[in-house]
Write a structure and sequence with these properties.
Blueprint: H1 2-6, H2 10-21, H3 25-38, E1 43-49, E2 55-60, H4 67-72, H5 100-106, E3 109-115, E4 122-128, E5 131-138, E6 143-149, H6 156-160, H7 165-182, E7 187-192, E8 195-200, H8 205-213, E9 221-227, E10 232-238, E11 250-254, E12 257-259, H9 262-271, E13 284-289, E14 295-296, E15 307-308, H10 311-328, H11 368-383, H12 400-412, H13 417-429, E16 433-435, E17 439-444, E18 447-452, H14 453-471, E19 476-486, H15 489-497, H16 499-504, E20 508-512, E21 515-522, H17 527-543, H18 548-563, H19 572-584, E22 598-602, H20 603-609
Parallel strand pairs: 1-7, 11-13
Antiparallel strand pairs: 1-2, 2-6, 3-4, 3-6, 4-5, 7-8, 9-10, 10-13, 11-12, 14-15, 16-17, 17-18, 18-22, 19-21, 20-21
Helix pairs in contact: 2-5, 2-18, 3-7, 9-10, 11-12, 14-18, 14-19, 15-17, 17-18
Bound molecules: adenosine-5'-diphosphate and magnesium ion.
């Protein structure tokens, strides 16, 4: 089976991983700035053009990379920060997965310029769509500059889901704030389209907060401080009279890492109980330090959720620390609000709850539909030769690049011969037939074309699911009657190790000891074909050492196999649709497991047989 796994090219695996790590320009900003901090930089500049669509550049004065490391850094799982599994519980760096640069390079044009502190000369690497295009020596100072251009140039669906420039810039600023607040000792500059938004000198925390949020925040800040065995707490909360109607600045950090936590948020707001009016929000900048091995930062690829071993105890300590600080500054319940004093704690309003970052999409929405219509109109009206009569055709499901190529040809060369050919093939397909409920036979110019129906269906479903998976999680269908399956403990362990990917693929579950209780399954499965797929998945994850990209490929292969069914009697219209959809795939010759879909019997070959 390992031949199959190798069929997933690295660039696709990287693209899939990129889907998890890089959701929008702000994710690139986060990863690049964190790398600069990890490299020990004391000064970091961030230059943005067009909300990051055109350019994201991060320049640092950190320790730099050697020629070899510069190239290596783009390999998936290349990290200098983690050597043993145990290191995961002893992290002092922000990055550790070694996925960021590989992911970014899979979906953008990247130029890396760097010089290591021990080297005389620097190096420049250019890479796009995971392909190294050039590497050459350059003269430069110690440190690193990474430029990311044309983000998502090869993932049009993702690009189309980007929000307006103002929203994307807000996300970028937010990431910038998070890192700037974590490292007041580092100088930061951020520019957007050439305008300087912030130029922050190295400072203490209070000054950093004022530099970022304006001088008038100074009088608002109440310091908090607590030292216990479980946790050390530092930072500031804003006095209650400055509570804001909109959610203000609310930042938690643990061991120098930003995180989100609605449970701890509740602890803080609970300390403000009766002090602020309903539906207003306190601002806070709270820094926790806990023993490294008492948290797990590995539960989410973008790492804003963190699991605390001692979360309940920390909750109480946090709450009383904030309360004490508010009391100390003699601002406890003397404030008289005219509005109701009953503070209505709403820790889990929709915009506050923990969410795995994802792009909200309607899973039934086809991002190419509109564009295709437009292209189709342009393409076919501009060819203007009158030879094209598309009206009678079913809508195509073309692979984008093919479609664009096709459009390019139609536009540039004004050459309609390929279209005429296509039209003729369409005609001949109308005379196609199904053989033994297994093959479609059709006359083509060169002879007889034979199509393996099940594999063709698998290819089409695989492409659709993969496209969908790269953009967003695959939709899940809820089961009225949960399905149970017993697992051995290693299988259970592996299942949980792959939980993020399995969830993205549409599985939802609970455990009853070693029995998995499935309450949701990928939308393409039925309860009939679930069993086979499930067994395959369990076998794959527990017997083969596969990584995330490969896992997605494997699972989608089994989903496609299961969903393609076994009934292949097709009406002539269904035959035509299937062939249309198949040829829209860039990989129409081979099924997702590498088996042949199409064979052609040349007419000469046939003639020979009758000699
Ligand atoms: P991670 O940060 O998880 O290790 P990345 O893909 O972000 O993975 O980076 C890969 C490796 O490239 C890092 O481990 C580090 O060795 C190197 N690297 C990346 N950015 C920089 C930088 N700005 N300065 C020095 N080294 C860097
Ligand atoms: Mg990193």
């Amino acid at each position: 089976m390992s031949e199959v796994i190798r069929l997933l090219p690295d660039n696709i695996a990287n693209q899939i991983a990129a889907g998890e790590v890089i959701q929008r320009p702000a994710s690139v900003v986060k990863e690049l700035i964190e790398n600069a901090v990890d490299a020990g930089a004391t000064r970091i500049e961030l230059h943005i053009k067009d909300a990051g669509r055109t350019l994201i550049q991060v320049i640092d004065n950190g320790k730099g990379m050697t020629e070899m490391d510069a190239r290596m850094s783009f390999e998936r799982h290349a990290t200098s920060k983690l050597r043993h599994a145990d290191d995961l519980f002893n992290l002092s760096t922000k990055g550790f997965r070694g996925e960021a640069l590989a992911s970014i390079a899979a979906i953008a044009h990247v130029t890396l310029e760097t010089r290591h502190e021990t080297r005389e000369i620097g190096t420049k690497v250019s890479i796009a769509a995971s392909q190294i295009e050039a590497q050459e020596p350059i003269a430069r100072q110690t440190g690193t500059s990474v430029s990311v251009k044309n983000l998502f140039f090869n993932v049009p669906a993702r690009r189309n889901f980007l929000k307006s420039d103002s929203i994307e810039s807000k996300h970028i600023l937010e990431e910038f704030y998070r890192v700037a607040l974590t490292h007041p000792e580092v100088g930061f500059k951020i520019t957007h389209n050439g305008n300087t938004l912030h130029d922050l000198g190295s400072a203490i925390l209070r000054k950093r907060i004022i530099d970022l949020f304006g001088g008038n925040i100074n009088e608002k800040l109440v310091p908090i401080e607590e030292d216990t065995d479980l946790v050390q707490i530092r930072g500031f909360v804003a006095k209650p009279e400055f509570a804001r109607k909109t959610r203000g600045e609310q930042y938690f950090f643990v061991n120098n890492r930003f995180f989100k936590d609605s449970y701890f948020h509740h602890a803080v707001t609970a300390a403000f109980d009766n002090l602020i009016p309903a539906k207003t929000y306190p601002s806070y900048f709270i820094y926790l330090t806990v023993p490294k091995d008492s948290i797990d930062v590995n539960i989410h690829p973008t790492k804003t959720e963190i699991k605390f071993e001692e979360d309940r105890n920390i909750y109480s300590i946090l709450r009383s620390t904030v309360k004490l600080a508010l009391g100390k500054y003699n601002i406890a319940p003397t404030i008289d609000f005219e509005v109701e004093t009953q503070f209505d704690v709403q820790p889990l309003q929709s915009h506050e709850s923990i969410r795995i970052p994802q792009i909200d999409v309607d899973p039934t929405y086809n991002p190419f539909e509109e564009e295709r219509k437009q292209l189709a109109q342009k393409s076919f009206s501009s060819s203007g030769s009158g030879t094209m009569k598309r009206d009678g055709l079913k809508p195509l499901q073309p692979n984008r690049s093919d479609w664009e190529n096709f459009y390019e040809i139609a536009r540039k060369e004004e050459d309609t011969s390929s279209e005429i050919e296509y039209e003729q093939e369409q005609q001949s397909l109308k005379q196609s037939m199904v053989l033994h409920r297994k093959y479609i036979l059709a006359q083509v110019k060169s002879g007889l074309m034979m199509i393996h129906i099940k594999r063709a269906k698998e290819r089409i479903i695989y492409d659709q699911l993969m496209e969908q998976f790269i953009v967003s999680p695959i939709s899940s269908q809820q089961l009225m009657f949960p399905i149970e399956q017993k697992m051995i403990s290693t299988e259970k362990l592996e299942w949980e190790n792959n939980a993020t990917s399995l969830r993205r693929l549409g599985f939802e579950w609970d455990w009853n000891k070693d029995t998995i209780v499935l309450s949701g399954i990928p939308a393409h499965l039925t309860t009939d074909n679930l069993q086979a797929c499930l067994e395959n998945v369990i076998h794959k994850i527990s017997h083969e050492n596969i990584d995330k990209g490969e896992l997605a490929h494997e699972l989608i292969v089994s989903l496609a196999a299961a969903a393609s069914g076994n009934k292949h009697a097709l009406s002539s219209e269904e035959q035509e649709n299937l062939v249309n959809e198949l040829f829209a795939s860039a990989e129409h010759q081979f099924g997702p497991t590498g088996k042949r879909i199409i064979q052609t019997l040349e007419i000469e070959e046939l003639n020979k047989r009758f000699n």
